[in-house]
Design a protein that fits this description.
Blueprint lengths: L1 E3 L2 E3 L10 E2 L2 E2 L19 H4 L4 E5 L2 E4 L4 E4 L2 H4 L8 H13 L11 H13 L2 H4 L2 E5 L4 H16 L4 E2 L7 H10 L36 H12 L16 E4 L2 E2 L5 E2 L2 H13 L4 E4 L23 E4 L11 E5 L18 H16 L2 H22 L3 E7 L2 E6 L14 H13 L2 E2 L1 E3 L5 E4 L7 H19 L37
Parallel strand pairs: 7-18, 9-10, 10-13, 13-14
Antiparallel strand pairs: 1-2, 3-4, 5-6, 6-7, 8-15, 11-12, 14-15, 16-17, 17-20, 19-20
Helix pairs in contact: 3-10, 4-10, 6-7, 8-9, 11-13, 12-13
Length: 506
């Protein structure tokens, strides 16, 4: 008998033995075994994207069944250079072959120093000269908690104020709980202030399509409502928060770019009240929005920046960059053990340098304009598209039920957005959904996407939206591709996928 964990298994039936026993053929040693029933139900992506990727390069993913897809999810924005870019792979191999430690905690290493030097070259000028770099745990939520500790120590106040729909709202609430937010602090009131919108549609002001105020006008109107939440003193009935956390673009909140005048006003308000301004660049950094950092178009200098996802070059890494005036000492907690990942730092250095040297942020701005222009022309012909918005290669397409509203703005259409996502997948295109009602189709292609690939993405997305718009609104979840109950795709809508022998992806 053999013991496997706490179970006793007859000899010859050990997993991986490759032997037959009792009519059961065991898998050969080392063979991968997919057991979806053994994983937690917390995995969201397989429910919408039922593929098993086994090979990837650039924009292209190959599934276990040999089908190929254009990936406009990019690891939820993690892959600035796409899958397995040569400069990233070379940086990882070089680090592995050097014999350097792969985990060095907070100790100084050549790999760490190279990452910090390259990162400082890319920061906004007002921050770069005064910046201090803190490596956090592998996730952006770790950097949010580090930012909360930092501003708490610097101000003596509690609470990291965020906006409705923020990607890291949950992490900031957790940080507030850890640092003793009181009932009188603004951040503990339960409701978050609204994030400004510079577009039309049901999630905006309710104005008719084409008649909404400009971003500057709406920003000015919002500013008058924003002064009150920041009292001049605690006697006004609410304590100031320890810091204000905002995103230059609410990505998961529906791809909503913040108006630049509003960003500047937030900087004025926080500076006047000595509230540190923390900008979350998890999604918007490393060239994604047409500038190296999403905060740059507004011209403001934040007190701190949260960096993650693309900054690790496809590997887990998060960093908090802050002004030296906020302090450089310990903030009350020991450093985490996962913040010395040398492979992530090497991959991140290669990615930052490649984006900077090849001016990929500028190219993202040009390609983003092409995407917005064509999708807005599509919106003129497809009533269910309420709005197309974004910056650079971070694009959102908001879908509604235009025929379902007698008065006022049409209701959001998460069912339509899900149907578009499925139709895209049938055509060999991977897209993501976002927004409070999951009614926004999001595009996050790698910055290395070619002109030809961009046209292919647009063709497949336009085909999918047109196909869904011509169908009755779905009353419930539609079947996933390959379930047998979905309609067969037409020749034009069939996925551009190529089964065949295993080979390197172009």
């Amino acid at each position: 008998m053999a013991v496997t964990g706490s179970a006793v298994v007859p000899r010859g039936r050990e997993p991986g033995s490759g032997r037959r026993d009792g009519g059961v053929r065991m898998a050969p040693a080392g063979a991968p075994r997919h057991r979806p029933g053994r994983e937690s139900a917390s995995r969201p992506y397989p429910r919408a994207l039922p593929i098993v990727p086994v090979r990837a390069r650039g924009l292209t993913i190959e599934g276990a069944d040999g089908r190929r897809y254009l990936d406009c999810l990019s690891g939820a924005g993690t892959l600035a250079l796409g899958h397995n870019h040569p400069v990233v792979l070379e940086a990882i191999r070089r680090t592995l072959d050097s014999g350097a430690p792969l985990q060095a905690l907070d100790l100084a290493t050549p790999v760490r120093d190279a990452f910090v030097a390259e990162l400082l070259r890319t920061l906004p000028p007002g921050l770069a000269d005064r910046a201090r770099v803190e490596f956090c745990g592998p996730a952006a939520a770790d950097a949010v908690r580090a930012a909360s500790r930092l501003v708490h120590a610097a101000t003596g106040r509690a609470g990291l104020l965020t906006f409705t729909g923020a990607c890291r709202d949950g992490a900031s609430r957790e940080a507030e709980a850890a640092y003793g937010t009181t009932a009188g602090a603004f951040g503990s009131r339960g409701a978050r202030p609204p994030y400004p919108r510079d577009q039309h549609g049901p999630s905006g002001t309710g104005a008719e399509r084409g008649a909404a105020p400009t971003g500057a006008e709406r920003g000015a109107a919002l500013v008058s409502r924003w002064a009150e939440p920041f009292p001049d003193d605690a006697g006004a009935g609410a304590a100031l928060p320890a810091g204000l956390l905002l995103e230059p673009v609410h990505d998961e909140g529906g791809v909503i770019p913040a108006p630049d005048p509003w960003m500047r006003r937030m900087r004025e308000l926080t500076r006047a009240r000595s509230v540190p301004l923390v900008v979350d660049e998890e999604q918007t950094g490393v060239g994604r929005t047409g500038t190296f950092w999403g905060v740059e178009p507004s011209g403001i200098t934040p007190d701190a920046m949260i960096l993650s996802k693309a900054v690790g070059g496809s590997l887990p890494l998060s960093v908090l960059v802050h002004d030296e005036a906020l302090g450089t000492g310990r903030t009350g907690e020991p450093p985490g053990g996962c913040r010395g990942n040398q492979l992530a730092m090497a991959a991140g250095t290669a990615t930052l340098a490649y984006v900077r040297e090849n001016r990929l942020a500028e190219r993202a701005a040009v390609l983003g304009d092409r995407l917005l222009g064509r999708l807005r022309r599509l919106a003129d012909d497809v009533p269910c598209i309420a709005d197309v918005r974004g910056r650079g290669l971070l694009i959102g397409v908001e879908l509604v039920h235009p025929e379902a509203a007698d008065t006022g703005p049409p209701p959001t259409a998460p069912g339509l957005a899900s149907a578009v996502q499925r139709e895209c997948l049938r055509r060999g295109l991977i897209v993501e959904l976002g927004g409070p009602g999951a009614n926004v189709v999001r595009l996050l292609p790698p910055l290395t996407i070619t002109d030809e690939q961009l046209d292919a993405v647009l063709d497949r997305l336009a085909d999918a939206v047109t196909a869904v718009a011509g169908q009755p609104p779905p009353s419930g979840p539609a079947p996933l591709p390959g379930s047998g109950s979905a309609p067969s795709p037409s020749p034009r809508s069939a996925p551009a996928v190529t089964p065949g022998p295993r080979r390197a992806l172009a």
